Amino acid sequence: MDLRIQNKSISKAFWFLGLLFSGLIITSCDKNRVYDQYCTIPDMAWHMDSTYRFDVIIMDSINPHNILLNIRHGGNYPYRNLILFVNIHFPNEKQLVDTVNCILADQTGKWYGKGWGSLYSNTIMYKRRIRFPVNGNYTIAVQHAMRDPVLSAINNIGIRIEKSE
After folding, report:
1. pLDDT tens digits, 57-116
2. Closest Cα to residue 146, out of 54, 68, 92, 80?
3. I need a labelling partner for 47 at 20 to 30 A (CA). Which of 12, 96, 142, 164 fits?
4. d(C-alpha 11, C-alpha 90), whole Å
């Protein structure tokens, strides 16, 4: 009996290590990724005055980059779109302020993006082939611009910066 328990423990350990190793290989293959982070929105209730900040260190002011917005929302999200205020604070104290309309569903209400269960994940191109003017710490702040004081069914907001091809 003890031998079977020990074999199951060893088997589980090998399975876990294999899963961990596979995950590392998959993420290490993403050579274009410079930054990729998400913020979780508590209780899937995004308050109008809540701003999510992403601190990004950019050390390449020569090559072009893409900036993408990552949105995870529930299938019960009440709108086809999500309007965001995006504010980029540059290391040299300059700012870029934008309003971005993120289309999450078609006209019939079919969700875009990848879905599993009742959660959908969308990647929205925000800036394509831009060059960061200076090296240093950039802060990207994201706030929702919808009319609802509390926007329901938004689970995560994220920023991805990748090298442009």
Report:
1. 999 999 999 999 999 999 999 999 999 999 999 999 999 999 999 999 999 999 999 988
2. 80
3. 96
4. 50
The span from the CA of 155 to the CA of 115, in Å, is: 13
CA 53/CA 161 separation, integer angstroms: 14
115-34-140 Cα angle (round to 5) = 80
Q: Report the distance separating Cα 88 and Cα 133, nearest Å.
A: 12
Ramachandran angles phi, psi of 122, nearest 5°: -125, 145
Three-class DSSP category at 119? strand
Say whether pTM exceeds 0.70. yes
Dist. CA 10–CA 132, nearest whole Å: 49
3-class secondary structure, 41: coil
Q: Is 146:77 a contact under the CB 8 Å cutoff? A: no
Pair 102, 113: CB distance under 8 Å: no
Q: Which two tokens stand for residue 79?
A: 């709108």
d(CA 30, CA 162): 9
